[in-house]
User: What shape does this take?
Amino acid sequence: MTMSTYDRLNKTSRVFRTVVQALILSVCISATGCAMFSDRSTGLSAWKPPWSKKSVTDDPTIDNVRGPMQRVLQTAMWKKERESNFIKPGVGATEYKKAQELFDAKNYKEAEKEFKAIVKKFKNDPIREDAQFMIAECQFARKRYSWAQDSYDQLLVDFPSTRHLDQTTKRMFTIARHWLQDPSIISGSEVQQVNLEEPGSDSPELPDDGKKRSSRWALVPNLFDRSRPVFDTENRALEALKSIWLHDPTGPLADDALMLTASHYLQKGRYMDADRTFGLLREEYPKSPHLKDAFMLGTHVKLMSYQGPRYDATVLDDAGNLKETTLRMFPNADKQRLKTELQKIEYAKAKREWETVQYWMRRSKPKSAAVYCNLLIEHYPTSPFANQARDLLAELGRDNTNHLWANYAVPGKKSAEKEPEPSRFSLPGIPGFGSDEPKAVPAPSKAPAEQAPAEDTGLEPPARLRLDGLDEPIRRIPSDGEPEPARIQL
Assistant: This one.
């Protein structure tokens, strides 16, 4: 049975596609370097794209967590054992000593292989903790930072209270700063004020430290720099900072990691994320040296997320409360600037109330507009919108303002018509009721001086209690043994 011409062509095209795909794959491998694959036996960490499986730091636990003092003692004891010559031989000590000698000789590639063999061989022994830490140290020394980050994270997950915690957090902080290209923490006094009259029209300029930084899209691969991940370097740096304050919240770098994260969010215009991070810093680290800047910049990012008078005003209330708290907590703060910003916040709140009045006027609901005019005048009586609200109340007239609890209309612009007086009860025979003019009441005749009546206070004097036949009032209550007292008369 012979093969048809169509089958031969179809088979030839399949073979051609297979050859082309193999050539493309080989070119990609040669461009990125074969060492990237041969150096690691635990996976391709540097190739981890943003949509890959979640990091080991996304689900932190508190299992086997120890206090800061216990961690310090563990670290000191481990250093003492390393320097001592009287260490008891433990499980895997011979292999560990061999790998340590390679590390001291700066043969990091071979030392990394030996430490990986120790981790694989002694899975349930204490030496695994030290070997896992030294794997990350070898990768850090070779400037394979993306792989070192994963190794440090794995150490923190397997041993949350490891004795290498201080050194691990320092390494992670160094890696994050390298990936973010040595960022500087923003100070609260350097940020300009937000334009609340026209929110979103322009953004205040942030201070520039003079460093030139290159930005890269998250999906653009990095094929040449081995010290950075292949994808999404910035978010990997934020992940490293997150790991610091999650696993070592009482450490010396926890508040620094939060402040650096919030500053990065602020520079990138991610104001909601910056607000959340500044809030966490204020709540969890009240003794941090970054606390003042966290308050100042916290109000700034809240106001930057304000979208205008037609949107929710919760951020205005929160920003005002933060500024008032800043005035109370930090006497050395720029009080004049804070008071000016508080006045601008009050102005923005009044403008929002006036927008509500205008909304009801456009809906042809003058009575609802009158209600919000009253609220505006009561809450913000010194704002320029309060005068406009008074003028509007005067123009609406009595028909649209008779339901208000108080009428704050401008007196000079009230209606010229004389408003009728409220009806009065008409009771016959009582002067002053039932007629427009009150009737004259004759003055009482003046009594002689010797018979001048006592001044009328509206109450009758109390009657005096007297005994029959006596002019003196009762002075005490008789006891049980005494005879029955005389009859009392009023």
